[in-house]
Every structure is written in structure tokens, then in C-alpha cells.
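We emphasize that the prediction below concerns an isolated chain of 531 residues; any contacts that depend on oligomerization or on bound cofactors are therefore not represented. The input was used exactly as deposited, without trimming of termini.
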Amino acid sequence: MQTDFLVIGSGIAGLTYALKTAKEFPDKKITVITKTQADETNTKYAQGGIAGVWDEEKDSYNKHIDDTLIAGDGLCNEQIVEIVVKEGPERIKEIIAYGAEFDKEETGEYSLGKEGGHSENRILHHKDVTGKEMERALLDELGSTKNIELINHCFVVDIITQHHFGYLVTKSTLDITCYGVYVLNLHSNQIEKILAKITLLATGGCGQAYRTTTNPRIATGDGIAMVYRAKGKIENMEFIQFHPTALYEPGVSPSFLVTEAVRGDGGILRNKSSEAFMERYDARRDLAPRDIVARAIDNEMKRTGTEHVYLDCRHMDKEKFIHHFPNIYQKCLSIGIDVMQHMIPVAPAAHYSCGGIKTDEWGRTSVKNLYACGECASTGLHGANRLASNSLLEAMVFGHRCFLDSKEQVDKISFGEKIPDWKATGTTEPREMILITQSQKELQQIMTDYVGIVRTDIRLERAMKRLDLLFAETEALYRSTKVSPQLCELRNLITVGYLIVKGAEFRKESRGLHFNTDHLQKSELLQNIIL
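Result of the prediction step, given as a C-alpha cell string:
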């Protein structure tokens, strides 16, 4: 199969790119592939909203830029922050034109929320399902675009580079080139080739590396792992953001997210003694940046010997709460919690990868003809900690910028010739799935216990030793059995776990989301960890 533009992932980043490309080139073929259904993405689970300077009388670009830089703790690329903040409002207007609806006040003006780390009200939202509404609008628009082919249930195994022709490819190879991908067709159970002039990775995050995460089950770091195997550059993987307030339900995965907007509207964090504890940790209290709030909750849980804290909404207006957070209200009711009478048990959960595939200001990776945007990419926007509701904004801005750059390149690129078929000789069907499922549980336990919100040198050392063993076992299984989505996801998660640990070992300081009690001071030498 050949396609001019290949988009891997159907979240807001991938769909933004696909739609713009299809409208620009009505005679070219655009293919979007996803490993499950088109709407099963991290975008769908984004509750809070999208940040953008909307009310210029009260807000300004400089304020949004400053808030982003402060949250990023010195590691943001200031040029990228300025690009995203200043181009963001135009991208929001575009998705509104596609039909996305954001909540409005009775006056007809957009209702702007406020979340941790923001100095002004600038969050546009659709109740507490903003991502789902934006995904709906994009998919509706995609359905009326004739030159986009959407392929569901298609699992990408690897990106095709010179490595697959038998050439030696290393980190120092200057002309690593992407020719397309090998995919496992889940209907035929066969591995096929999709050749492309331009390939865009919009594969989302890697929350499933941890035992407790707000990410859907598909968030297994596939794009990041594939680029690393192709000897592309990966950056800042040690900065894994834990959302402070996931609903505490033992054994339930993924965890239900209780958006930061609840605290923006007045929700208060309390410990088991009903004490509002955030004032002891930061002057901004419950609206401090996420890294600070997550560490504060983690400390309170350890100090009091509990597995969660509480979010108190009992003092909030019931009608407004139900209007703004209908899904949170119903979810809590379904497990016997009336938020107007009972506090909500919450605990931190792995939520967002601030690092990923290193890109430039146009979304270009270190591999030729390969772009990346969305959570799988490290654009330089987030630095050491992402500011709340900047993720959807970044995805749209860089989906647009990838489009602007790749449209100038596509006619200069030819399809790869004599691409070898996938070799699966000498492999058999896996005899015991427990070899895969148990290894994934071990990985999640290792990452949660040793590479969580608070880290130490010895924890990281132990994590690496155990990951080495899991890697060796899984690679042996990969070489001897037929490829399956479960085995590929395990392999990708182990790679992502290794990258997180290795980045954390290199960073001999505590900065943003990386907090190591053996290195509490910040280094004056600011640097990104590139692997």
C-alpha cells in the first residue's frame, strides 16, 4: 500500500494534521491508522479544557508565556512557548469553525476557567469532557473529507528505515530516512507494508508504564519506542507528570480523572484529618502547578499512612457543579459518593509525558520525512513540567506547523523502492500469554515503586537492573514467537521504562517533575537529556 501522507494516531494532533493536508491536496492520498477505534485516544479523556488567551482585556500573551515558563522550571524552549501561545487562539477558532462547542456564560461570552499555574482565567471547556467534544468535531469534519482513508485495528510494529535493508544505522548516522511502516493487520493477522512519502507520528503518551494511570490502555509509548529503535533522538523522558487528583478506586484501571478545573472552581484538598494541607507546601495552595500538588499529596499520604487524600467540594454550588462537571458528579454517585455530602477520595496517577520524540519548531524529527506532534513529541513547550491545559493547544499548533512544513516537502520525495517484506520465518504462535501479561505487571510495579513521584539513586539503580532482565526475556520471546499487539506493546513499554529511568539517572538534580531526594538542589547548568 502507498500513500502520500501517513498519519499514525487519530487524536487531536493527528486529525488536525490530516484535515489540513487533505484540504490542501484534494488529489493526494492521506491515510490515518489507529490500533483500535478512531476515537479511543488520550484526547478523548482530556477533561479540563484548552488554554488560550481569549479575553485580551484581562489576559495577555506575556502572562500565558510567563505561566508556561514558570511551570516548566527553566527547561522550556522560550521560542516554542511564544509560538504556541501566540498561534494557539487561531487554532482554537479553527476547531470552533469545525463545530466544537465550548461552554458560554448567559451573556454569550465563553466561560473561561482557571487551573493550577495559570494567573488568569483562560481555559475554554465543554463541561468536563472537552477532549471528547473536540475529538467529535474533528471526526465529523474528517467524515466529510473524501481523500482521507481511516484504517482502524491496525497496529504499527516499526517504522521502515535503512536498517531494514541490512545497513548499519547508528545514532551518528546523518541520513536516517523513514519510508513508511510495517503494520500488523488485526483482521488478517498478517504484517503488511504501508509506504509513505511523509509519515507523522501522533501516537500519544505512555501512561500504561505505570500501575495507576489516567491514560487509556492504548497509551503504551509506541511511537517513542519505534523512533528510539530507529536510532532517532528522544528527549526529557524523566519528566512524567502525575495528575494530582485521580479518583481513588483500588484495582480499577485506567483511573477516572477528576479535572483540575474542580480546584479552579473552589475544590479544596484535605488529608484524612480534614485538614486543608496545601497552604503548607505553596502560597498558591490548591492551584499550585501539578508537580508541587502531586508531591504534596504523596507526602501527606506517606506521612499519614493512607492511600489517598480527599477533594472537598461540599461547599460548592450544587447546580453549578453539576452543570460544569456532570460526568464527575455521576461517576462519584455510581460508587456511592454524593459530592455535596461526601469528600472525593483522590490520589496521584501517571498522566502525561512531557518528554518524547525530539522535534524542531516545525515538528521535524531527527529522522528524514518523519514528523511528530502531540504527547509523543518533545517540542520544547513543557520543559520540566506541563502547565495545565497546554497539551491540547500544543497538539493543534504543531499539527498545523507539521502541515505547513511537510506540504512544501512532499513533492520532492519519492516512494522507497524494493522495500523488503517483513521476515517472520522460524517463529511460532505464543504458547502462554501469561509470559506477556505477567511481565507487563512487573514492569508497572517496578516503575510505580521505583520511578514514581519521588525517586532516589538506589531506586533507579534497582529499576534498571530489573528492566534489563525484563528486556532480555521479552526480546527472546519476540525473536521466537509470532508478533502480537500484546507482545509489541510490552516491548514498547519496556523501552519507554528504560528511557524514563536512564533520563532520571542522568539528571543529578531535582527539577519540575523529576524529584530525587539524593539530589535536592537544582543545577545551574540547565540541560535537556537526549537519549
